[in-house]
Recover the amino acids of this structure.
């Protein structure tokens, strides 16, 4: 990797980004091993913290140095191209840590910011089995109790749950979605069902809550405009990084394998198919960059554009990875090949909220002028 960037980088961003670039090369070499073992790369996540990435992503208004959206997008894409499980865990960790620092800024925000900067681990526990993609609209009700409220229910796909010191949790309080920081204790347990197709090293577990106390002092406001949108900005980048890695693996295979005395890359059908996916991948990158530019300039269209970028990135990543399997043939289907891992990982992006189906409905209704019923 290089520390020469194709976009304006502030002086305080340059060193953390250069460190991420160097670490990504190390992560790439071990991605398959952690995926095979379905093991969280704890040491790699610690290395990102030691490289100053957590301080960099935390907005300056709550104690960090505040990456631009352009720099943040570059970080997640770079990590995802090397090891998308690391990129996913870190994005969710940053999303929870930054959110808690911001939404509790008037009460416990400085505490959560200090814990985040000290290297404590955070995880998002928002998605419910019954609420589908609407992770900001919980269905589970928090009951009044000593010290605040209690929650009995479950949250699913909590990336890095087993190493989390703090969880970002939501529930209905007086009929309204309400957000809390939670310290996992013996009322929070992991349901051991982790056996996924892709992104295995995220270990995004199902958590069970049994009268878990949601402390009043850890209650925060609803995330809103002006907050750093870590998750919406990060999810498209995960798929784009996977797509970039899948295309690189495809190209390497096509150049190195021969058929009828010439490299596979000389086959016309391969050239045509690669032209199609590379062009659409470039378009997805451009749409994503547009979304980041809008966000850096605080333009309201940023979030809807991020949704469109996620939709396109998710679809293109799968298409690139599927073409990789076709070009790779039987050897690309082998377990030792990175091609099959890219395909498995690419599929996961489509399922992350909002899924491609939900986004298609949102985008389609907006284009057609149909109000959501």
């Amino acid at each position: 990797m290089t520390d020469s960037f194709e976009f304006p980088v502030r002086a305080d961003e340059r060193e953390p980004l250069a460190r991420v670039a160097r670490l990504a090369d190390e992560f790439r070499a071990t991605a398959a091993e952690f995926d095979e073992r379905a093991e969280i790369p704890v040491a790699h996540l610690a290395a990102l913290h030691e490289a100053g990435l957590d301080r960099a992503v935390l907005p300056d208004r709550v104690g960090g140095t505040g990456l631009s959206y352009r720099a943040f997008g570059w970080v997640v894409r770079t990590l995802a191209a090397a090891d998308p499980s690391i990129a996913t865990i870190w994005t969710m960790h940053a999303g929870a840590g930054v959110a808690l620092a911001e939404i509790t800024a008037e009460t416990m925000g400085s505490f959560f910011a200090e814990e985040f900067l000290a290297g404590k681990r955070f995880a998002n526990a928002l998605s419910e089995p019954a609420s589908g993609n609407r992770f900001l609209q919980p269905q589970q009700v928090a009951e009044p109790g000593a010290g605040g409220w209690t929650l009995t229910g479950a949250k699913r796909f909590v990336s890095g749950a087993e190493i989390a010191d703090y969880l970002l949790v939501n529930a209905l309080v007086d009929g309204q979605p309400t957000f809390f920081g939670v310290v996992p204790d013996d009322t929070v347990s992991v349901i051991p069902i982790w056996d996924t197709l892709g992104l295995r090293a995220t270990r995004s577990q199902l958590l069970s809550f049994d009268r878990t106390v949601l402390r009043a002092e850890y209650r925060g406001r609803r995330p809103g405009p002006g907050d750093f949108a870590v998750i919406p900005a990060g999810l498209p980048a995960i798929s784009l990084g996977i797509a970039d890695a899948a295309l690189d693996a495809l190209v390497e295979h096509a150049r190195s394998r021969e058929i009828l005395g010439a490299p596979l890359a000389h086959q016309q059908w391969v050239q045509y198919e690669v032209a199609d996916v590379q062009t659409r991948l470039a378009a997805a990158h451009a749409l994503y960059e547009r979304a980041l530019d809008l966000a850096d300039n605080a333009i309201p269209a940023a979030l809807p554009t991020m949704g469109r970028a996620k939709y396109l990135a998710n679809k293109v990543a799968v298409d690139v990875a599927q073409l990789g399997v076709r070009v790779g043939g039987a050897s690309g289907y082998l377990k030792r090949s990175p091609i099959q891992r890219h395909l498995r990982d690419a599929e996961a992006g489509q399922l992350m909220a909002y899924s491609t189906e939900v986004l298609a409905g949102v985008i389609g209704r907006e284009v057609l002028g149909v109000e959501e019923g």
About this structure: The mean pLDDT is 95. The first strand starts at residue 122 and ends at 125.
